[in-house]
Structures
1.
Amino acid sequence: MTAQAAVITPKEDPWQMALRQFNIAADQLPLKRGIRELLAYPKRELTVNFPVKMDDGSVRIFTGYRVHHSTVLGPTKGGIRYHPDVTLNEVRALAMWMTWKCATVGLPYGGAKGGVVVNPKELSREELEHLTRRYATEIGILMSPEGDIPAPDVGTNPQIMAWIMDTYSMHRGYSTPSVVTGKPLAIGGSFGRIEATGRGVTFVTREATRHLGMPLAGAKVAVQGFGNVGAVAAYLLHDQGCSIVAASDSSGGVHNPKGLDPRALVKFKEDRGSVTGFPSANRVTNEELLEVSCDILVPSALEAQITASNAGKVKARLVVEGANGPITPDGDEVLEARNVLVVPDILANAGGVIVSYFEWVQGLQQFFWTEEEVNQNLERIMVRSFGQVLRGSLDRKVSMRTAALIRAIERVADALMTRGIYP
């Protein structure tokens, strides 16, 4: 095995990544040992193994998880992921990142995450519904509008949230729309929720380019992960005058240094199932996309994409994390040494949970906002949070990631100390 292969195989464990990031920030704070240990580990973890009847009459057993990292600031909030590579450690990491994300942008939530080990593309609609309803039943002991509120993530969508909401409501005997967010509008979803994460990425990208003195109009952008987050960020940045030079999905990517039409690419992917084969573009791998010539890189796929082995080949001046955990701590060190500005996931992609919060509030009050109101409030919170994290980064002379984590950890630790240790 070569030295390079040893770095990237096996893939870095997301939980170890999350703990390393936490410890780097926690070292900057005067935390009592017991408080630090409490913040470092999940509050509760649920593993479920459940049967699903398939279309051919057979029964398959699936494994699912739901992890609550912290409940100090309020109900736990976090998405549900359907992916064949889901592991308990991945869900633990994602739950911890959700705690810090909510705290970074000032939401009254703790962090949670869920996942099922499954490739949803291999299931029929009926099988997907059966799996979703059974999984929702299994984790129903944790879910409630006041306690734990799921949302979509990789491999899930508004329809899956609708099935979860309906399942929970059937068990309660009355409709409970606020038990999940990311629902369709027809059953209490919020305007602006589908575009929220990508729109938030766009807002912080704009703020970061202003800080760097880099013109946004004309900037070349590469997007890894042309899904709900990446595609929206691509066409909104294109609307701001950026040139989208590369995009990829799980099947591969396309590159044209003269620019791609992101909305045409969205339509092409809807028709063909992938961006690969898009006319007037060269095919690239997901790994090659990270190294194309561009000003702004938006990794919006999965964890541990930029590592010590390839961070030195990233050509962008600005990296905005649309995904959770796409850069490993070792990759962070390489980028920081090269003066590449990284806007971290717990800030950059917080738009989704911010508008999920708006949806939850609307559902509890049964009072709904216009799309303009949603987007204005989203922009206000994203711009304010970016400015606060940037000031912390400059004042402490630390990376944006560490500054965001310090802000988040301080907020949760302060709330914990104020509440006290029960009993």
Note: The longest helix spans residues 371-396.
2.
Amino acid sequence: MKNVLVLLLLLALCLPVAGMAGDKKDPLAAWQPAFDPSGAKYTYILSNVSHPVIEGVAAGYRIRDKVWAQTNGQIYVDYRPLSQLGGEKDVISKLKLGAVQGMLSSSVAAANVSDRLGVVNLPYVIDTFDKLDTFRNDQELWTPFAEGALSKGIYVADFTGYGPYGWATTTPVDNLAAAKGVNFRVAQAPVNTDFYKAWGLKFTVMPWPDVPQALQTGVISGLDHTAIVCNITKKFTIAKHFTELNYAQGLFVHLINKRWLDKLPADLRTTFLKVIAEESAATRIATRKQYDVQVAKAKEAGVQFYQLSDKEITELKKLAEPVLEKWGQKIGSDYLAKVRAKLGS
């Protein structure tokens, strides 16, 4: 009888735990494929660190479904968002080795793959939605970018986005003097650290997963990021102020392992790249709309938005010129000059 009572007690303790585990929802349940991918001839593992509620991230699922349909089930895009395959630096290493075949890399991380890819992060060069479209659609500008990482065995197929960059802060920042009192989190990217130093601002380089706790504990008091991401990921619940700096467009750059791409039959490769281009273009349109929606929602929730004066924006551009000159030498001075001239930057 004593043994039976002990067994019943153990069962009573275990059942709530089992119930709780069963109640945990799969955050990606709504994005499961409506087809059986087991018969695919080719599998393309595609990584991303963010959540598909962001249009630029959801594009991976749209690419998956359209590639499957248009190749008659020959290519399965095994999409893994939400850092399922690790952080961006780890995935970039796997991509170079071929353990992962594709990556929707944040534009800030992409600069670690090739200096040329850093052109999209430079302040006030490709800073608006319209300039971004011009950059992508002008082959004289786009081709050198797409081929900018070939020496690393990586091809740039296209990009989606997550909106224009600004500052989410715990205190109001409507001028540069106020900005100097903020400790900004910036991404692990050499371009960003260079121009934050040039701007004379305090910053901390930090992986994205560490941001929530750092913001809550006051280790940082501001984020260098976009309104779309800050609102969707609930950063505005703590950092209730946003300065619309609009110095660059946040992108998810679609990187592909070139060896894997070259092994595809020519017809499948053409279809595969065509789908990526079509879905990326459609997603850039959707991102414009999502930006307006998320800003409106943030304002309704009480987030205060600010803009620096034209004079202070001019000052930021002036301070950044040495950084552009330095990175021009890495990116290619002639190429950067051509980008700036064609975009009026």
Note: Confidence is low (pLDDT under 50) at residues 4-23.
